[in-house]
Each structure stands twice: as structure tokens, then as C-alpha cells.
Amino acid sequence: MYAENDIQRLLEGIKEYGLSAPSEMLEAPIEKLVEICNGIGDGQMPTALRKILNGVLNFAECSAAIHDWRYANSDGTQSSRLAADKEFRANMLDEISRKERWFKWLKEWSALRAYYAVRSCGYADWCIAFTEANRKENV
Q: What is the pTM of this model?
């Protein structure tokens, strides 16, 4: 979970690295982003594995925050999920390219593994996010 100053840092990084992000996210209140943006691997993943992933993939924090936003605002369709996941992959590679100096190839390899993991295991999180968003709207 991020604090408000972490979210501000991520928003600055998104702009600095020229990452693809929805304008609604960039204009959202910090408090809402703190609720939504939760790091890498939240959802069905065990806490220990989530901590490891957040450490290993710390070079993709901005990309993960955008991906969290996309999933939190899921429309439940497979085509939108594919677009969100592809954006995640592109953003990770751009983030690495624009800010990393050492071991880029290893970070790119890790980013692609993260993309494949999201594609393989993210459907439940996508559906849960869609259901949660609809539940909040109907309450």
C-alpha cells in the first residue's frame, strides 16, 4: 500500500517517463489513488510472494500503478483486459528504457515475465474489480 507522498512520486514518474495513463487517473484525488494503487501482485497472491515481486519489480512501480487503475475501473470485457495488460507491458518497457541504467536486459526479461503472469493469472482480479465497481455504484 502506498502513502500519499508515494502516489505523488508515482504520478510525477508517469509524466516524466511519458507513460500511457488515463487522464481520469492523473486528475483523480490522491486519496482515491491511495485506495486503488497497491503495488505489484495484490489480489489472489500470497503476501510473501507479493513482497518478493514488489522488491524484484520495483523498477515498474509507475506502470503497476497505472495497471492497478485500469483493473479498478474494469468494464469486465476480455478486450479491455487485453488492452490494459498490453499497456502494462509497454509502460514497463518504457519505464525501464527511460530510467534504468544497469541490467536493462534483466529488467526487461522480468517485465515480460510479469506480463505473462498477469495474462495467465489476472482474469479473476479483473472480474473481481468489475464486480466491486458495480457493487459500489449500486449501493
A: 0.89
